[in-house]
Each structure stands twice: as C-alpha cells, then as structure tokens.
Specification:
Protein name: Nucleotide-diphospho-sugar transferase domain-containing protein
CATH topology of the largest domain: Spore Coat Polysaccharide Biosynthesis Protein SpsA, Chain A
Organism: Hymenobacter lapidiphilus
CATH class of the largest domain: Alpha Beta
Helix content: 40-55%
Structural class: alpha/beta
Largest sheet: 7 strands, mixed
Radius of gyration: 19 Å
Number of domains: 2
Length: 292
C-alpha cells in the first residue's frame, strides 16, 4: 500500500496550503496511486472542499496526543515525527510525507515504486553545507569536525556533509525505527547551535546514514520561502467557498505561487548590499499582483 501523508494541524492557512496541494496532486495523479492520510484537528475543513472520498482518510488523533507529540519543548518538528511514527504503526507500506506548502507537478507513482525497493526520499539536495547558502555555511562553521550520537553509532559533520530539505520524507513503514534516532540527534544539534534547520539536518543525516537519499524535487514544488502568500490563499478559499472545484482552482492558480517562489528566491540570493539598496529605494521584493 502507498500512503501520501499531510500534517495540517493548527492555523487555517496551513489547511488551505494542504488543500491546494491536494488539488494539484489529484490533477497529476488522476488514478491516485496512494491513499491520502490527512492528520488534522478539523477534518470537516477538508471535507467541505474535497467531499467524501474513499481515498482520503483522517486518522483520529486526540488533543492529548497532539500535545504529547510536540513534547515538553513544544517543537513543531517533534509533531512531524509523531505523525510519521503513528502512520508507520497503523498504515503499513510505502509512506510519503509532504509539507503543506507544496504543489505537485508530476505523478509521484515512480517515487512509491522506488520506496518499495528500499529507497528513501527527501525533497531536495541543497548541496554541501560548507559551500551552500549563507545559513548552511554558518551552521557548518559551528558544527564542522563535531561528532554526534545516532542510535548506537556516531555521525561526524565534515566537508562532504550535505543538507537535504525535509519538505518531503519518504520511506517504508518498516524503516520507522529510524525516526526514534532523529529527535535525539536534532536535540544535540540544537544544543550546539540553535537554528531552525537542525530538524532537517538531523533527518537527512539519519535517513542517509545507511542508504543514499533521493530527491522528490522533480515531482513537487516546495515553496518554503513564501509564507507571505498565506493570507492570499485564505482569501481565495473564503471567497470561493462552496463553488465548484474548477472555479476554485482557477483563482488559486492565478496567485502564481510557482512564479512568486522563483522571484523571491532570486531576491534572496542577491548580495546583502544590493538588497539593502533596493529596500532604501522601496523596491524590495513583495508579493506580486495584489496577493498581499
């Protein structure tokens, strides 16, 4: 069995991201290769848009369980690990977790085939940390040469250590035992240098420790850098609530999330002095087309 997993708990904007992602998924996979598991505290929000579908399930999770998954430190990455552990325990097969801020561009059936063969996936190989973006280089300078416990072994941050984006995580349910090593590793990394990327660094280090990681990026766009689009998404869902799905999709697609994702990344990569100059001139990057 193949399972596509969403975690859509909390703010309405997260659920709207998940709904848009699901609509793109159903378009590229008209004969869905997977059962969709939506972990949410408000399944009716999804049913109002999607209707009742036999291929979309909403696992029952109590309020106490949601709180327990966040842990004493109340960390979001712990919630993701909790959902993955629950899914692996209750839905045996090939698991593909996706963040809500994603748009499916190709049928992911080949990913599930590779997972069944033992491959593990994350969203994107962001490259060697020591030569990566500004944050990767900063984290590398702080962690280089250090060793961290991973289960019964150890992992060392070295010149070839790569960073993988954790917007997608794919593995077989029998590999879920590895998840138990990710949280302790992330805690060690956070304790050494408190940066938000430590969850994805820990995930990539553990899943890739004994198996090469593959990229899901050719199949799905992950617009992690575009939090500013959320109010516009919410307005579309609220304004066109109750209308047919083609009308809703038309207005969602008009936001041009893919194009705005690319434009924001290009702005982000400009030298600091260039971004400062643009801000002084009032020409810094903004959400385009009245989507703010």
């Amino acid at each position: 069995m193949n399972y596509l997993i969403y975690l859509a708990h909390g703010p309405a904007a997260i659920k709207h991201e998940a709904l848009y992602s699901l609509l793109t998924y159903f378009e590229v996979a008209p004969a869905p290769p997977a059962t969709v598991l939506v972990y949410t505290d408000t399944p009716d929000v999804f049913r109002q848009v999607l209707g009742e579908r036999a291929d979309v399930l909403y696992p029952a999770v109590t309020a106490e369980q949601w709180r327990a998954w966040r842990g004493a430190a109340d960390m979001v990455y712990l919630l993701k690990i909790g959902v993955l552990e629950h899914a692996a325990a209750h839905y045996h097969g090939n698991l593909l977790f996706t963040d809500t801020d994603t748009l499916w561009q190709r049928d992911p059936s080949p990913i599930f085939v590779q997972i069944a063969e033992g491959a593990r996936f994350m969203h994107l190989d962001e490259g060697v940390m020591r030569t990566g973006n500004l944050l990767s280089r900063k984290v590398y300078r702080r962690l280089q040469g250090r060793e961290f416990a991973v289960g019964a072994g150890r992992v060392r941050i070295g010149p070839d250590t790569r960073l993988y984006n954790s917007g997608i995580i794919g593995f077989r349910s029998e590999d879920a035992v590895l998840l138990g090593d990710i949280t302790p590793l992330a805690d060690q990394l956070y304790a050494t240098y408190h940066k938000h990327m430590m969850e994805q660094l820990a995930t990539g280090l553990r899943l890739g420790l004994d198996s090469p990681l593959r990229e899901a990026a050719p199949y799905v766009l992950h617009y992690w850098n575009l939090k500013a689009i959320r109010p516009a998404l919410t307005r579309v869902f609220e304004q066109y609530a109750g209308q047919d799905l083609p009308t809703l999709r038309h207005h969602l697609d008009a936001l041009d999330i893919a194009g705005q994702h690319t434009a924001e990344l290009a702005y982000r990569e400009l030298p600091g002095w260039h971004r400062t100059l643009l801000k002084l001139l009032g020409r810094q990057w903004r959400i385009a087309g009245g989507a703010e």
